[in-house]
Amino acid sequence: MSKINPLSLTYLPGLSFFTTREHLRTLFAPFGHVKEAFLVFDHKTGRPKGFGFVSYDSQIEAEKAIKAMNGRVVDGRIIFVEHCTSAILK
Q1: Where is the RRM domain (predicted)?
Q2: Cα–chain-centroid distance for residue 85?
Q3: Where are the extended beta strands (E) located within 29-86?
């Protein structure tokens, strides 16, 4: 992951195990330039853990995504979109 401004990083808990990185990029692109979209996987099993991150160029773009996407149904699951905090990244 490249250097990311934490204010432009969104945290996505509650993702379906079927959600792909490409699908996240497509879903979140309308709100600004998506720098990175990534999912977190279990290193032992290789399976998704059900959460990920989307980073934008600016905090304003991230806030647009949070307002528009929080609580939406994606791949059969209600997703949550929130600002990423340093506690989440640990």
Answers
A1: 8-86
A2: 13
A3: 34-41, 48-56, 73-74, 77-78, 82-83
* Residue at 32: amino acid letter: G
- Core vs surface per residue 18-44: b (16+ CB within 10 A) or e: ebeeebbeebbeebbebbbbebeeeee
Chain length of the chain: 90
What is the Cα–Cα distance from 35 to 17, expressed in whole angstroms? Answer: 22
* Spatial distance between the Cα atoms of 63 and 18, rounded to a whole number of angstroms: 25
> Contact at 8 Å (CB) between 72 and 35?
no
| Local structure of residue 12 (DSSP, 8 states) | E
- pLDDT, one tens digit per residue, over 12-45 is 999 999 999 999 999 999 999 999 999 999 999 9
First vs last C-alpha separation in the chain: 14
